[in-house]
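GPW/gp25 family protein
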Amino acid sequence: MKRCDYAFPFRIDGVSGQGARTPSYEAHVEQMIRQVLLTTPGERVNRPLFGAGLRRLLFAPNAEPLNATAQMLVLQALTDALAEHIDVKEVKVHGAGEVDDEGQILIRIDYVIRQTRAPQHTEVLIP
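Structure:
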């Protein structure tokens, strides 16, 4: 049975006039990861603890504590929100100075999708 998950951000499909769907479950999981990492706790009224709150780290000094803090926030947020979907294997953080734009953080997450046991990775740029 093929899954039909709605795309994020939500949009209307121009052909069918219905909510757009993701092309695969893997794409849906990647969208969920981005949604968790780019949301600040408190943004969602009914889920005040949802999100990682990584944007508050953008102006922190670029040092090893920044990377460790970001890794901890990512692991905690993904475990809280997506534990039934993924197993996080590794989180790598590239802070200011390691990315083209000084005011950005690049996060790479290596994970396994529980339903398919497929290893995946995704990179999220925090502007």
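DSSP finds two helices and three strands in the chain.
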